[in-house]
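Possible regression after last week's pipeline update?

I re-ran a chain I had predicted before the update to compare outputs. Posting the input and the new output here so someone can diff against the archived version. Not blocking, just want to make sure nothing changed silently.
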Amino acid sequence: MNNPYDYLGIGRNATEQQVMDAYRRIAGEIQSSDISDSEKTARMNELNNAYDTVVNEMRGTSAYQNTSNSQNNYYSDSQFSDVRQNINDGRIDEAETILNGIPTSMRTAEWHFLKGVIHQRRGWLNEAYRCYQTACSIDPSNAEYAAAFNAMNGNVGGGYKTTPNRDRMCDICTGLICADCCCECMGGDLIPCC
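New output (post-update):
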């Protein structure tokens, strides 16, 4: 990749939203293309490097001067270092796009674990629980997967959101008497119980 702006098809004055839109468009093209899985992975890595370079330049940061090296050092034993980096950077959609591009036959315990992390970040606790459970059944000796699964054991209550916590409620929720009908910020279902 010579010029990340040319690779993304954007100008140097593009906004972060335009960069994100370009990323999603190209990621979709890569994932839907009729190429080998290894070629898809290579192209997604190139796309991630272009995206990171442009966004870091826009933000004036040089934390990832050599993104591929920093990722490989930080997640040296991870099959999905790019997915982990995207999750840590808050780019959940991009992380999920990469994971969804992995064929079913190649989905490892780490794949299920990372899918669980994505579901948990979105508040989809039942799906997160199932993914963590699958990761633990595939690799029962992995402490990272076991810790995530054990942490979920007490938090799955049949819904998509977490149990309300009055200490984290917004101004609207603090005025409510019943915690079950608090707003979406706390995972409430807005259905009064009383």
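Follow-up from reviewer: compared with the archived run. The CA atoms of residues 25 and 44 lie 12 Å apart. Marking as no regression found.
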